[in-house]
Design goal:
The complex is a heterodimer of chains A (244) and B (324). With 244 residues, chain A is α/β, with parallel strands linked by helices. Helices cover 34% and strands 25% of the residues of chain A. Chain A has a single domain, classed as P-loop containing nucleotide triphosphate hydrolases (Rossmann fold), CATH 3.40.50.300. In chain A, helix 3 (95-103) crosses helix 4 and helix 3 (95-103) packs parallel to helix 5. Chain B has one domain: ABC transporter involved in vitamin B12 uptake, BtuC (Orthogonal Bundle). In chain B, strands 1-2 form a two-stranded antiparallel sheet. In chain B, helix 7 (148-172) packs across helix 8 (174-184). Classes of the chains: A alpha/beta (244), B mainly alpha (324). The A-B interface holds A 50-52, 71-73, 76-77, 81-82, 84, 88-93, 97, 100-102, 104-105, 107-110, 113, 149-150, 152-153 and B 172-174, 177-178, 180-181, 184-185, 187-196.
Chain lengths: 244, 324
């Protein structure tokens, strides 16, 4: 049984079909990346899996359970963590307190939550800023804070929406190396990126290409970047001939 | 809160309990009653409006529930001290109804919905004279038979101490962190597994219960209530203003806010007579412009800035020294 399975899932916003009959399966321990141009439907797909939105058609199963109608907090409790594309730190709380919020899912003790949060910040190499307010942190730290908060809920699947957007190449690659270690913790991940393929090449087991809400290709990173349909989606039909 | 701070808080409340040894006139005790009553009400409001960031402008609904329960229930053979307890239960039932509907709305729409519910209750109370006495009003039995003003003052201090204790507990607990998460960003709160609807309701239950006890004390001291008084927008506003003036989302804010606001309004009444509401309004405008985070919030921000400036100063000096 796959960890996560989408069966012909669709979501419309008025006349716009944001996600169109997407079927996919994520295995335990797998790191998959969803790539696609801006507006391809990546964030909508993440919101569907995380319970922020519910599909108009099709079903979503997590560990064999139908979660198509589950609310966002329920999805988190079942083991789906997420980060937001536009970082959403709780700005008046410290970095540590932000992460504690995730840890509170498994404990009611403030000190236990603080210990757990400290451990995760150490893993993400953020212990030096633990006691500073989230307000005013640079973008690279805020991206890590999003991941730390999601990890603190002890997810079995983590959704990383545009996790390296806005980072420099070196920052992005450093983060990718950390994310590659999620496998050690037995956490599956679905990342979403628009175009930072270096990160994808480095850590993805499998790449799923989304265009106009439809899954147009999937395969290993090496396979996918060679596919004519992928190049067409990104660069337009004119460039397709270069691959032949 | 550290142990020394707990002792300071306990000591301060003990001193407040001793004040009637010095202050003996009925008038002064009634002013002090009002200061502590609104401190407790502000603290109660603060759980929902401050920590959870849900701007309720209809707390008169719970205040009135407590006051009317205190007035009506003893007529049906309910004992004097059971009446406020049933008032608390009634207010929590109102909170379930009002919160259940209003919490679906965010921002100003939530505030408007809370005003609407309180107004509906006020109009109901006005138009059901057979139950509530309508506009004519209704008598309220006194909870205390002896040393009435002193007893009510002490009851208000105890209620404030309870509300303060609850606030400190909340601000240190998982529940408090959850409320702050909801205030800062509801989507993030959901993403860490917080059932935001239920958490907000729990905060409102606590808040409504304390507010109802305050309403019962108020009605019972003044012996007579009418809908336009205990269910009025004025009461809702005053509760919210006390907390915001002192500093919403802080434990000390509502107490300080009540001391400032209630003593100012009392002084203005004596000094400016008919113009006191004008002066009172101007004071609020000044506070909103110059102290948007409230008194405690502004002082905290100032202290934090000073601390970080002090922390940065030695570093700068070291840099200067190494440069030279």
């Amino acid at each position: 049984m796959a960890l996560l399975e989408l069966r012909r899932t669709s979501k419309k916003f008025g006349g716009l079909v944001a996600v169109n009959g997407v079927s996919l399966a994520i295995e335990r321990g797998e790191v998959a990346f969803l790539v696609g141009p801006n507006g391809a439907g990546k964030t909508t797909l993440f919101n569907l899996i995380a319970g922020m939105l519910h599909p108009d058609q099709g079903e979503i199963f997590f560990e064999g359970r139908d979660i198509s109608r589950a609310r966002a907090d329920r999805a988190t409790k079942l083991g789906i963590g997420r980060t937001f594309q536009l970082v959403k730190p709780l700005r008046n709380l410290t970095v540590l307190e932000n992460v504690m919020l995730g840890a509170f899912l498994h404990t009611s003790s403030t000190s236990a939550a603080a210990r757990e949060a400290g451990r995760i910040l150490e893993f993400l190499q953020m212990e030096d800023v633990a006691h500073l307010p989230a307000l005013g942190m640079p973008q690279a730290k805020l991206k890590r804070l999003e991941i730390a908060r999601a990890l603190a809920t002890r997810p079995r699947l983590i959704l990383l929406d545009e996790v390296v957007a806005g980072l420099s190449t070196s920052e992005a690659l450093a983060l990718a190396d950390l994310l590659a270690r999620l496998r050690e913790w037995g956490i599956s991940a679905i990342g979403g990126v628009e175009h930072v393929m270096q990160v994808v090449m480095r850590i993805a087991d499998r790449v799923l290409v989304l265009d106009h809400g439809t899954l147009i290709a999937e395969g290993t990173p090496e396979e996918v970047v060679q596919m004519p349909s992928v190049i067409e989606a990104y660069l337009g039909p004119k460039y397709k001939e270069f691959t032949q | 809160m550290t142990r020394s701070k707990s002792w300071i808080a306990a000591g301060s409340f003990a001193v407040c309990l001793l004040i009637p040894l010095v202050v003996r006139t009925d008038y002064n005790l009634q002013v002090l009653f009002r200061v502590f009553l609104f401190a407790a009400l502000g603290l109660a409001w603060n759980l929902v409006g401050g920590y959870a960031g849900q701007l309720s402008l209809g707390h008169a609904a719970y205040f009135g529930a407590g006051a009317y329960a205190m007035a009506l229930l003893p007529h049906f053979g309910v004992s004097l001290w059971l009446a406020p307890v049933l008032g608390i239960i009634l207010a929590v039932a109102f909170a379930a109804l009002i919160g259940g509907v209003s919490f679906r709305l965010r921002g100003p729409y939530f505030a408007l919905a809370t005003i609407a519910f309180a107004e509906v209750l006020r109009l109901l109370a006005k138009n059901l004279p057979s139950v509530t006495g309508g506009d004519v009003g209704i008598q309220v039995p006194s909870l205390f038979a002896h040393a009435i003003n002193r007893s009510f003052y002490l009851a208000a201090v105890v209620l404030t101490a309870i509300a303060f204790g609850v606030t400190v507990w909340v601000s240190r607990s998982k529940f408090g962190y959850y409320l702050m998460a909801i205030r800062e960003d509801e989507d993030t709160a959901l993403s860490v597994g917080i059932n935001t609807a239920r958490t907000k309701l729990e905060a409102l239950f606590l808040s409504a219960g304390i507010t109802a006890m305050g309403g019962a004390l108020y009605g019972s001291l003044f012996l007579f209530i009418v809908p336009d008084q205990v269910l009025s927008l004025d009461i809702s506003n005053e509760i919210a203003i006390v907390a915001m003036l002192g500093g919403a989302g802080t434990a000390l804010g509502p107490i300080l806010g009540s001391i400032v606001l209630e003593s100012a309004s009392e002084t203005f009444k004596n000094v400016f007579h008919e113009a006191h509401l004008l002066i009172y309004g101007l004071l609020l405008v000044v506070v909103v412009i110059f102290l948007p985070e409230g008194i405690v919030g502004t002082v905290n921000t100032w202290l934090a800035r000073r601390r970080s400036a002090l922390a940065a100063a030695p570093k700068q000096r070291a840099q200067r020294n190494s440069a030279s």
